[in-house]
Amino acid sequence: xxxxxxxxxxxxxxxxxxxxxxxxxxERAAKGRALRDQVPRSSxxxxRAAKGRADxxxxxxxxxxxxxxxxxxxxxxxxxxxxxxxxxGAAAIMAADLATVPSSGxxxxxxxxxxxxxxxxxxxxxxxxxxxxxxxxxxxxxxxEWDLKRxxxxxxxxADHLALSRSDAARVATDSVREYRERMHNFANxxxxxxxxxxxxxxxxxxxxxxPKVVEAARRRMAERIEAERRKSTPDHLYPKFVVADGVHPRxxxxxxxxxxxxxxxxxxxxxxxxxAIATYRTSLADHTRMxxxxxxxxxxxxxxxxxxxxxxxxxxxxxxxxxxxPLFLQVKEARASxxxxxxxxxxxxxxxxxxxxxxxLMQAATDVFLGWTRGKNGKDFxxxxxxxxxxSAIIEDWDTGMLRQYGRMCAHALAxxxxxxxxxxxxxxxxxxxxxxxxxxxxxxxxxxxxNRSDYRAFLQGIRAGQIEATIEDI
Length: 476
Fold this sequence. Notes:
The chain is α+β, with helices and mostly antiparallel strands.
């Protein structure tokens, strides 16, 4: 193939920057292969804690700074349920560990917390249901391997949670890495716009390399969940679930300790109806969305405890109304510094809410029209999105090996697509190669890191038993 002439380009993104020299896909792949001399793919394998590794319990306690202290025991109670639940809330621990292992140096817009429960389905503005990364609180530019290692380790830990055999866990993990690698090779050969427009449509999802029976079972489950979520996301479902009449004004129902109205000192601005914060949020919206948003009027806001890692941060639900029986529920989530920041560098955005939203727009195939950010009177940063817009999360408790394999492949596909949008797919594909060397290395890391997670979990439980950590177990 004839090489294209060298030209200056102003193409955006990690692949090139203003003033950089144009390289063909083959030349960028060759640069990726050359990186193996500095960072062999085999060096990505295995896990051994670095000397002086930070105490995992101390890292978790440090991450409580700035949280609502009364809610921290709920966070730790949720993490105490199992090694899998612990891993979900321990992104700060793994971020510190990933910073000590070899990496190729190829950077992408990283999710920052790419465990398999942070993937799922949600509605596009066109009301199609796509599968993608759906939690990007920790997003920040970082080495591409960090996301992949966290995802694959979560698959191994999930396999252990489901009592699958070690051999099955290894096969599922390796298959997920292979899916990521092969998808990246595909993206490397696609046109830039084709990569950008690529999406995983849940209602049309096919996997020709998977077991047809498992794929069909997954499709049936998806159809059932999609229909259920359509019902749950309608105003007729959400409004009576969350709202009670308070005189002539609707008000969010209190269900302490998980839903409650905060005191003024915790969320200043209540007396003005959070007028300044809402005005700042409005300016972050596109012009056409502002016109839609202006139809709605603020009525109420309440703290709503969500997730595992987010428990204790300032997360709330906001009720706005455009008319009788015409509500808009917005989720307002505190955006703190990414757990990757001490190791990957500070965000270029002053507002961490903006950091999260820009990351979402870069990594997701489609985003909520109401995505935006603001800053509260208390100085905290926030990002905003619709509450429960047909959001589907995995429920893994009854999965077998086939279902975990299928879901892992879907997560790997979504992660590869996000990384290809924000990084150099050809260079990543060149580094990973076409054989199993890279797959085996990441699988070995994930398997050994799962053991580290179990060890950290035991230390965490010991801290609870010793009274060092307060944990509240919720009634189911």
